[in-house]
Amino acid sequence: MKLIFVNNKTASKAKIFDFNSLAHIGIASVILGIPMSLGLFIGHKVTDFKWENLFQNTLAEMEVQIANQRDNVDAQKEELEDSLNAMTVKLAQLRYRIVRLDALGEELTNVAEIDQREFSFSQEPGLGGPNSLNTDRSVSNPINIDRYSEKFADLEHAVLGQETQLNVLKSILADKYLRSEQTIAGKPVRRGWMSSDYGMRTDPFHGKRQWHAGVDFAGRKGDDIVSIGSGVITYSGVKSGYGLMVEITHNDGFVTRYAHNDKNVVELGSTVKKGQVIAKMGSSGRSTGPHVHLEVHKNGRTVDPSSYINRTIR
User: Fold this and answer.
1) d(C-alpha 112, C-alpha 118), whole Å
2) Does 278 lie in the same domain as 161?
3) Is 271 within a domain?
């Protein structure tokens, strides 16, 4: 192969290169290879520059995303810590409520004289039932919210059970208090002694045997006379033989009378509670000295007040 170079000025002098020789081939390679190598080098540099910019931009974007995620994690961690602190406070409050309920329940049980085995506030009431959810409690993590939820559920369940027992106990106490108020029981005086029994006795005025329809409690003039049951005042005034008297009508056909008073402090038609002062002790009517004559009537007939004076409310 030959390559001919012609000069316009000296057209007669043309240069002929014969590529058949190795020397000529080397020269041609150098002449043609330099531009090609330069182009490849420049192209490679441009490509490296583009990839470097792309890598740097991607790296910067990843750093921004990581920073944002770190901020989000910190915020969520702070929120979780606040939630855990709040849950801890609530757990403490629930435990405090349980302790208070235990103490109150035991005190009320003792006051009500109820068997401790029926209302044991220190033990949770027996409950049960199938579990509709298949949960694996062996799976746990450092901050197990489910574990806290179970704690809350257990404590709230305990509080609910104790509050239920307290409501039942309050109902029992209310019924017992109502029965106690309505039941005829106790003494008509806060101090004093029984000076005369119910039944046949020797009359202090004429010395003959005569029926005594009540019991007498001796004391000092002006001592308080109290009602032995709640009811309505159906008489307050002077009655022959009784002197100044108070009569109270109770439930279940009971009527009580308090006689020989020095002064009545209740009015006709008013309601009184058990233990309320209704009169002052005196010696009015057919009496030998300061005392109160107590009568108990059941369905219109007198009964022995002694059985009601020593009566125990259960």
Assistant:
1) 12
2) no
3) yes
The model's pLDDT over 114-139, given as tens digits with 9 standing for 90+, comes to: 665 555 555 555 555 565 555 444 44
Of residues 288, 296, 291, the one with CA closest to residue 253 = 296
Q: Is residue 213 part of a domain?
A: yes
Confirm whether 100 is domain-assigned. Answer: yes
Domain CATH number, residue 203: 2.70.70.10
At residue 266 the predicted structure's pLDDT band, cuts being 50, 70 and 90, is very high
pTM of the model: 0.50
Structural domain total, the chain: 2
The residue range of the domain holding 70 is 1-122+142-182
Residues 26 and 154 in one domain: yes
Is the same domain home to 198 and 282?
yes
**272 domain-assigned:** yes
Q: Identify the residue with better confidence: 104 or 75.
A: 75
pLDDT 10s digits, 24-57? 556 656 566 666 666 666 665 555 555 556 655 6
Q: What pLDDT sits at residue 59? A: 60
